[in-house]
Amino acid sequence: MTISIDRALTLADATLERNEWSVDGLPRAIVTVYLVASADSGIVKDGLPGWMANLGAAAEETVRAYERIGAKHCAKLLARATAIVAPSGFPSDDAAFTQLFEDLSDACYDDLGALADQWFEYPDDVGALFEAYVAAHSGELEQLEREAAR
């Protein structure tokens, strides 16, 4: 039996909440489900800079999550966006992280806008790739769901 997308998303949200919204130390399938779903909705809602500001250093892991589901074009766009905002990587210090976004130039915002335009051309069928990923990892996700219920 295959776990539904809704159950996978509910499981991912509950798991992240228990982990204080950090992806650190969590199973790869949960991280992938959470980050892909969060990016997809977050970019639509807040744009690339807002999504990165809300997500923090997990933006870099999101690139890998898109690679894992097979959305190579989207992963490249996100990698380019994170390189514009944080060419040396995202700082772990909260003040430095906030300053990073405050210091973005108009040219950076223009570049991010151009990447967002490419994102919204939907170069990968993320929905189908996401469904295939969840189906392929259904057993693992169901096992994690059972463990969480204990």
Description:
The chain has 150 residues and is mainly α. The chain has one domain. The chain is built from eight helices and no strands. The two termini are 21 Å apart.
Brief summary:
The chain is an all-alpha fold. It contains eight helices and no strands.
Could you give the order of the helices and strands?
HHHHHHHH
Helix content range of the residues, please?
over 70%
Q: Low-confidence spans: pLDDT under 50, at least 5 residues? A: none
Residue-averaged pLDDT: 91
Calculate Rg over CA atoms.
16 Å
Shape: globular
> DSSP helix count?
8
Topology, pairings included?
Elements lengths: L4 H14 L9 H28 L2 H12 L2 H14 L8 H9 L3 H14 L6 H11 L1 H12 L1
Q: Could you list some keywords that capture this structure?
A:
150 residues, mainly alpha, 8 helices, 76% helix
